[in-house]
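Predict both folds.
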Amino acid sequence: MKDLRRYLALKYIQYLVLSSSNAVSTLLGLLGSAYTMILLQSAKVSSKSTAVLISSLAQTDILVFLSLVSEVVLGSFGAGVSPAASALARILLMANTHVSCVLLSCVAFEAYLITFLPSKSRPLRTVRNARLISRVIWMLVAAECALFLVDDHLRASGASAPSRGPLGLLFQLSSTAAALLRSLSYILGILLRIINVYIYYKIFFSMSPR
């Protein structure tokens, strides 16, 4: 449907074109996700793997809403807000961005399969596989966020964190893993942008009149 294609275009601009989010793109994304979730409940939209991925993409904006609510609530308490509480709002936005970028790449890859390998890829492009992929993405990002929350807590605790023994080793491993994951997240973000541009470049020229 045209509305779903417009929604995907909006999300690609929001997450894979713009260097950072802003109030306008965030508001449009929230409104688009709310409309898409309602639209996907319609009987006119067939239950296909692409629809499942788009539905999961729309649901990620719930994290943005929760982050905005938490910022309003935390702001009402002024300076008494704990660093861990403010870090939670930031990590919710990060989770939204990471899940959205990966899901958008999955939609792009599925479009590539539909365009170039329609028959061979049909057994892979099932609703069950799409739901499984969505769950795995959510679980991996949730684990990433948990690691960052632990690392932020350890940084906030500072000298109170043990430096020796098993707990000290665990804290050091956690900090190292978080730093490595932050670096990988940046690299993967750039890589996903390149892959998406390449996929849609191939699709566009394959469908253009020769």
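Second protein follows, with its predicted structure tokens after the sequence.
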Amino acid sequence: QSVLQGIILVPLRVICLAFLLLLAWLLALIATLCESGRGCVPLKGWRRRMIQTTLSGLTRVAFFILGFKVKVTGKVASLQEAPIFVAAPHSSFFDVIICALTGMPSIVSRAENLSTPVFGTILRSLQPVAVSRQDPDSRKKTVAEITKRALSRGQWPQVI
């Protein structure tokens, strides 16, 4: 019986996840369409709210479809309380759960990830701090960008 359930559930889950991924891509594309600044200026208004609410909700639904049920104990720190927060050890796709539960903050990511089809558009909508592995001054630039965002008094989303 469990093999029969797997034969039915696995394709159904894959179809649902593909649909959610395409929907997230479309919403990220809409939010960043005609965006002035291309990541140098924080998203504002409906664009920022759309990313925070819809992408967070879609990510939660995706993990539920995969069989994850996450319970948060305590209160998530607000942007004013913690402009920067650390998720450790970050080494897997479980980091996405943290992002979804905290309202899709900005992340620190390799610059190469921004050019990935579909995922690059979604990642770009989160306004990541892009780290270039080819640039020898990348660490200094990354620290400076994180500091600038942390001191922006809420203009930028939290940085994870």
